[in-house]
Each structure stands twice: as C-alpha cells, then as structure tokens.
Design goal:
It is a single chain. It contains ten helices and no strands. By secondary structure, it is mainly alpha-helical. It has one domain. Helix 1 runs antiparallel to helix 8, helix 2 packs antiparallel against helix 3 and helix 3 runs parallel beside helix 7. The relative contact order is 0.24.
Length: 203
C-alpha cells in the first residue's frame, strides 16, 4: 500500500500542473463537448505511458534524443497554432448558452486535438515514462506495479474530475468576459509551453 499511495501522490503532483492538456480538458468540460471521451482518452494515454515507464522504457527515450527533438518541434508548432486560435476566439463575445448550444468540434476533431496536445508534448514522455519510470525503480516486483497503478489511478481521477467538475464553474462563465480571460489564459499557456519546447535549440 505504501508504494500505491506514493504512486497516487507523485502521479497527481505531475498531472495536476497547469499545462496544455489540462487547459484543453477544462475548456471542453465547460462547453460540455465530449467530456467523457476526452477524459477517457487522456487517462488512457497517461496509463499507457506510466506503465511503459514502470516497465523500463524510459531508457529508450533517453537513448534516442531524436524522438524528443521531433516531438518538441512538432509539438511547439501545434501549440502555437492552437494558441493563436484561442487568442482569436478571445475577441469574440461568448456566453455560457452559446458555448453549450454551439456544435463546436465533432467527436473526431476533439479526439484528434486531444491526441495532438498529448502525444506531441515531450513533457508527457519525460514526466510519465522517464520520471515516474525512474522513481519506480526504488520498488521491486509487485510493489513497482502497485506504484504504477497508483499513478494511473491519480490520472483517471484528475482528468474525469477536471472534465466533469468544470460544469460547476458554469455560473462564473455566465459573464462573457470570463470566456475572454479563459481563451487568453489558454493562449498564454500554449505559447509559453511552445516557446519552452524550442528555446533550448536557440542556445
């Protein structure tokens, strides 16, 4: 149980950090557009990466830095484009009614966006496969598996809570300015992460 609880705690501390994935899940949850598939997909991706890390695949990522380079540049471009779309949206007045009634993204588009934001972000691999994988080495046998299971549980709880808990913020987003602030927060988050991904290549 000690390994399981430690997995939950460390996994939650990494997953709950403000990032592109969390910002996207929050907005889709507020708009009530495909919250279940998006939360499930984010949790599933994390689960696969965490278990890969526990199984020792972190050494492969460290051995092939080209994989990280491709993900960094591709991820930065994706985040810049998505951030620009959020910035553009911030200049359009929205209401809670418009957001929930508007068709928005199709399920296919939402799934593809979720995959892009998740898989094109090198931090996903570094936090789950490399970092959690490295921490798991302090445990042996079943304890290592329990550590991974704890981290996976933390991911599922977080994404489903964020996706479905977002609707409790609905009263706040009755004010059109709240949507403007959210879109600009998403824009800043996406671009900050994007610049962070490519900054090392200019040094």
């Amino acid at each position: 149980m000690h390994a399981f609880v430690q997995g939950v705690g460390i996994g939650a501390s990494l997953i709950m950090a403000v990032g592109a994935q969390n910002a996207f899940v929050l907005k889709q949850g507020l708009k009530r557009q495909h919250p279940m598939p998006i939360a499930a997909l984010c949790s599933f991706i994390d689960a696969v990466m965490i278990m890969a890390g526990v199984a020792g695949f972190g050494h492969l990522i460290q051995a092939f830095p080209l994989v990280k380079d491709i993900a960094s540049i591709g991820g930065a471009l994706f985040l810049f484009i998505y951030g620009a779309m959020a910035l553009k949206s911030s200049f359009t007045e929205h209401t809670m009614e418009q957001a929930t009634q508007h068709k928005g993204q199709t399920l296919k588009a939402a799934v593809l966006t979720t995959l892009g934001i998740s898989l094109l972000n090198p931090h996903l691999y570094l936090d789950t496969v490399v970092l959690l994988g490295s921490i798991s080495t302090q445990f042996a046998g079943n304890e290592r598996s329990m550590f991974g299971a704890g981290a996976v549980l933390a991911s599922f709880i977080w994404f489903f809570s964020l996706s479905f808990g977002a609707r409790f913020l609905s009263p706040l987003f009755q004010n059109p300015k709240s949507w403007c602030y959210l879109d600009r927060f998403i824009w800043l988050t996406m671009w900050a992460i994007g610049f962070g991904l490519i900054f090392p290549y200019f040094n």
